[in-house]
Amino acid sequence: MDIQLEKLSYSFKSKPILVGGRAMEYYGLRKAGDDIDLIVTEEDLTALIKLYPTRVKDIWGDFGVCPENFEIWKTIRYHGYDFYREGAVEEDTYFVVSLEKLLFMKALAMRIDKYLQDTYLISDEINKKNGELTQSITASNKKILDSVGPIEYIEHSGPQE
Q: Residues 1-7: contacts with CB within 8 Å, 24+ apart?
């Protein structure tokens, strides 16, 4: 996925983190819109604001700059670079936020129908990827049950043997 950072005429000190619709597209969940959403360090944001001083946004304390078709943020929902960098996928010139952090972002904004729909797409993808883990945990649970003898569930949901 080419996000054309060169259009900004700026060399990032730390790789930006791709979030939003382009991250959704990266994971094959849905097509992105025209904008490119990034989270950057305070150092990079400061330098970008100096380059684009007439393109600044402050949305309830989330501070960013929006040159070209980019929305570049220091924080989204008051969480910053270090938080969203954890677990991110590294590409050549940027990171892509992890599915789990992307789900977190969408959940915080899910009062908007588009983001609620994104939460369904992301959680379905996470559940699909957890298929092997589910089999391993089920086998481990069966081993426990086999070693203790008869039990009586007070609640049991999910696949039944």
A: 1/25, 1/26, 1/91, 3/36, 3/93, 3/94, 4/36, 5/93, 5/94, 7/68, 7/70
